[in-house]
Amino acid sequence: MAIKKLDSIFRPKRIALVGVSNNPDSVGGITLRNLVGGGFNGVVYPVNPRREAVFGIPCYPDVKSLPKTPDLAVIMTAAEAVPQLVQDCGEAGIHGVIIMSAGFKEAGEAGKKLEEQVKAQKAKFPDMRIVGPNCLGILVPGLNMNVSFAQTMPKKGHVAFISQSGALCTSVLDWAYESNIGFSNFVSIGNSMDVSFGDLIDYFGQDPNTKSIVLYVESIANARTFMSAARAFSREKPIIVYKSGRYPESAAAAASHTGAMASEDSVYDAVFRRAGLARVFEFGNIFDFTDLVGRKRIPKGNRLAIVTNAGGPGVMATDSLLSMGGSLVKLSEETMQKLNDYLPSFWSHGNPVDVLGDATPERFARAAEIVLEDKEVDSVLVLLTPQAMTDPTATAQAIATMSKNTTKSIMTSWLGGAAMHEGIHILNQNGISNYPAPEQAIRAFMTLSDYSENQQILYETPREVPVSFQYDRNELRQKYLTQVFPKAKVLNEDDSKMLVNDYGIDTTHPTPATTEDEAVKIAEEKGYPVVLKIYSPDIIHKSDVGGVALNIENEEMVRATFRNMVKTVAEKRPEARIDGITVQKMVDTKDGIELIVGTKKDPVFGTVMLVGMGGTTAELFKDQRLEFPPLNEHLARQMLRSLKIYPLLKGWRGDAPKNIDKLIEVLIRMSYLAADYPEIEELDINPLIVTPEDVIALDARIVVDEELLTTPAKEYSHLIMRPYPESLIKEATLRDGTPVTLRPIRPEDEPMWLELLGSCSKESIYHRFRYDFYFDSHEVASQFCFIDYDREIAIVAEHEKENGKNELIGVGRLIADPDVEIMEYAVLITDKWQKKELGFTLTSYCLEIAKSRGIKKLAAETTRDNKPMISVFRKLNFKIRFNEDTTVTVNKDLEQE
Fold first, then answer.
1. Residue 357 belongs to a domain with what CATH number?
2. Which of 150, 440, 524, 666 is most exposed, with the fewest beta carbons within 10 Å of its own?
């Protein structure tokens, strides 16, 4: 497996240094000294045809002449020599390569061509993995292995650090050494020609020594691999990311509202949020947060209580909290009463809780304990300043003792110098993060609460929203691909609205008119008042050139507006083709809210969706939220809740609430449309009017990716995540004639999945999981119902009961390794539905799915007493092995079938 082949890079026994020289200050000289002098236990082979020895170590002319094949080759020659050296490594059977050499795509066109040559050589050897080129190297402190030209070896720790910047790596290493921060692995990936962020997240996600992962990102190339890996591991191991280049001056502004608003950084922000990552915006804070999240006490929200023995630091913390969007908790009456009963009468009587300058350790701890008991408090920050009666060490011990009685997060800031050191050590030893200043603590807390929200979004059960389509979507697609999209790169308003309407989103229908008389006739048929818009394939923002007129109430106004509009627009845009105007019914918007909804194809991450404040001021206020299709009910609702105008949708100061459920349905329908049409480069609905009763698209515009009309895209290649695989829904009949539906599991199935497991006996549960599996919690259930369809498929058998309700009666699950070559299989059938060949039906179908996806091997494990499933495996020609520990291992080689 490609991921396991990374062992040759991070767990090598023999390393060849290709291009090493006698210069002790060269890249090769420093790397050799780091390995030999740093305590690396393996063998190091210097390779240089012009040297007999380097630093007294015998040197070899090339990798083919080495006495034993190394696991890892480190190339540090001139860039021009690298392609041939990669070929030499491949022919020698070397599976791991680090290319430190610079001068590739970062150096311009010539370097880019050279990098393509390296890729071509690597492609000849599928078992080879390459880190770099243009990288610092790697460090594995646990193995005393410094394969880099960095001077410093950090201490052992549990953080894997991955960076695209080698220069930043050296700075971080120096800083970490001074700050006594340790790492499990430290990786500079440079140009990441082969090994990418996604590969390394997969690898370190399975490393028991790695508890969290920190990324320094300049750009991401393989978006789907990154998203799939990050979503797979972000719940188990926090992934913290810092993205540089947030404001690229070279970024070209897109023509559409959606394009202009969906900037590169906002798209990255949406990626990190959807993957459940924690984003840090100031690099200096990244390890502050890493320390905090490593304590494993994640708050449910951003509601903070502050306990302090001085007013000033409390005010500083409050200012920071509010400026970052946090919430200073209003303490409950019960909490206030407890504090009044316990604290001196001169305490602050509010949050921050000022326990006064003469506070004893016991007073500090008890006050913090009381506020933590408040249901509205997510976390507490304890601030201590050195005053005459303060005992920092004893207070730290009291807080540490109290912390053992709560699961909520506690942060501290012991403000001062040498007198604070022993107390800070006690806090750190007891799992409590301490910060030199209140502002640092607040920044770490806000990042933690954002991370908590991302995790909740990732695994929150959505409601079922019935979405049906009037037409067959496949037939509809053929119509637009052959009849509509070839008309023009920018579809006219009528064609754009037609597609939007076909997906169940209500629109106003514009009718073209080339003369005044036609316009009058159409207006009278539609009924006054009407809207007139300029009809031109060359004009995108019609209102900018006087191409929109509202509330046209009679024939005279139609004629005058027609003449004036055509004349004015022709003067402002003389190069534009004007075909007349369009007429549509005027919608009363006085009780409505204007939104913009759109999609745009990002060159890296594919199609992204946007919803926000609409109208002509959409780009000015930029009240928006980006997400990636496919959407479910919860994601759509979360998009709306994040908007500043959401209170207006809910009903503001006596206004009637708008139809939010219908709006959510519209967003889900748009996500279907985005998934079905990779040929759509951009789609704008602006404005989308949301009233108390309805949701109506007043304007729409579609830009077609003409290249895909002649060169069709691979299915769903324009999406960063694979949508729900509807093609796998299948009807089946059991041996007794019972009809069942076999289909992939959905997040919405969580309640039925819990019922399925609840109806199983302990024996059935044990056969499936091989231990007493505790399933009755959302946290556990979400891991089985929220899945990445690229890597995992769970096929449920759904049966309609006599009362008309559906139930799940069995589930077969396929889980692929990160390289999607081997799949593990497991199946569970409820006791009531056993011995009806449901296990055979599910296993046969899952086997069929694995074959269709090009899986090489299927493996499973059960127990000796699970005779029905052993019988199923035997019928399907699995190889069966009975182990000494009562387990049974089965597998099937799909490549030979």
1. 3.40.50.261
2. 524
Reduced to 3 states (helix: H, G, I; strand: E, B; else coil), residue 65 is helix
d(CA 671, CA 665): 10
Cα 803 vs. chain centroid, distance in angstroms? 40
Question: Do 609 and 692 form a contact (C-beta atoms < 8 A)?
Answer: no
Q: Which of 357-366, 511-520, 711-720 has the lowest mean pLDDT?
A: 711-720
What whole-number distance in Å separates Cα of residue 587 and Cα of residue 167? 58
Entry pTM: 0.83
Q: What is the pLDDT of residue 255?
A: 41
Q: What is the mean pLDDT of residues 607-618?
A: 86
List the one residue out of 653, 673, 663 whose CA is nearest residue 625.
663
CA 231/CA 629 separation, integer angstroms:
15
Specify if 691 maps to a domain: no
- Give 576 or 460, the one with higher predicted confidence: 576
**29-33, 464-468, 722-726, 809-813: the lowest-pLDDT one:** 464-468
- Asked which of 458, 489, 522 is the last residue of a domain, the reply is 458
- Burial degree of 472 (CB within 10 A; 0-12, 13-18, 19+): exposed
Q: Tell me which residue range forms the domain holding 397.
A: 290-458
Residue 363 lies in a domain: yes
Q: How confident is the model at residue 466 (pLDDT cuts 50, 70, 90)?
A: low
Q: What span, in angstroms and rounded, lies between the C-alpha atoms of 395 and 386? A: 11
Q: DSSP letters of 693-704?
A: S-EEE--EEEEE
Instruction: Identify whether 234 is part of a domain.
Output: no
**C-alpha of 166 from chain center:** 25
Q: What φ, ψ does residue 512 adopt, rounded to 5°?
A: -70, 145
Cβ pair 700, 684 in contact under 8 A: yes
Q: Is the pLDDT reported for residue 625 higher than 70?
A: yes
What's residue 247's pLDDT?
55
522-549 residue pLDDT tens? 999 989 999 999 999 888 788 889 999 9
Task: Write the DSSP assignment of 300-364 as a string of letters.
Answer: SSSEEEEEESSHHHHHHHHHHHHHTT-EE----HHHHHHHHHHS-TTS-SSSSEE--TT--HHHH
Q: What pairing do the DSSP bridges indicate for beta strands 278-279 and 239-243?
A: parallel
CB 689 within 8 A of CB 589: yes
Spatial contact of 455 and 296, defined as CB atoms under 8 Å apart: no
**What pLDDT does residue 462 have?**
65
pLDDT given at position 294? 66
Main-chain phi, psi angles of 885, to 5 degrees: -90, 25
